[in-house]
Write a structure and sequence with these properties.
It comes from Hevea brasiliensis. Pfam families: zf-RING_2. The chain has about 160 residues and is mainly alpha-helical. It is built from four helices and three strands; from the N terminus they run αααβββα.
């Protein structure tokens, strides 16, 4: 009988499959969809930003000749030799604001010739001041601009 039961079990119709819980399958699909969207959407967004960046770079590179680049206006040139000669020459012992030359960072000795910048009264070695002021029309220490009024020779004493 054992064999008969065995055959009976094998020959008998199979049981219908267990009912599938649609709620469980639906939640699995929702979770997979959520994970997919959480991974996919940031990638799509970053790709779009990257493509926009590349397009802007391409546009800028192709239109570079059409837009005139902003050129920094050259600074005013320094003083001429005649203007330098009008600046006061003194010796190191006559300096009031200190004896260190801000151009070369060396001390100005008492017997060395120095140049005094009018207006701010900063003093420098004669060679250092002439070199600096021939390229720049400002004091190397305080950046005070040397006005043209310093170079106008007048007979009147402003004091």
């Amino acid at each position: 009988m054992r064999d008969g039961v065995r055959y009976t079990l094998l020959l008998s119709p199979s049981r219908p499959p267990a009912p599938v819980n649609h709620l469980f399958v639906s939640s699995n699909q929702n979770m997979l969809l959520s994970v997919f969207l959480a991974l996919f959407l940031p990638c799509v967004g970053m790709s779009a930003i990257f493509l926009i960046y590349i397009c802007i770079l391409w546009f800028a590179a192709n239109n570079q000749t059409e837009i005139a680049p902003q050129v920094k206006q050259p600074a005013e040139k320094g003083l001429s030799a005649s203007e330098l000669e009008k600046l006061p020459k003194i010796t190191g012992r006559e300096l009031v604001m200190g004896t260190e030359c801000a151009v070369c960072l060396d001390e100005i000795e008492e017997e060395q010739p120095a140049r005094l910048v009018p207006g701010c009264n900063h003093g420098f070695h004669l060679e250092c001041a002439d070199t600096w002021l021939s390229k720049n029309s400002v004091c190397p220490v305080c950046r005070a601009k040397l006005d043209s009024q310093f170079f106008i020779s007048s007979n009147e004493n402003p004091c």
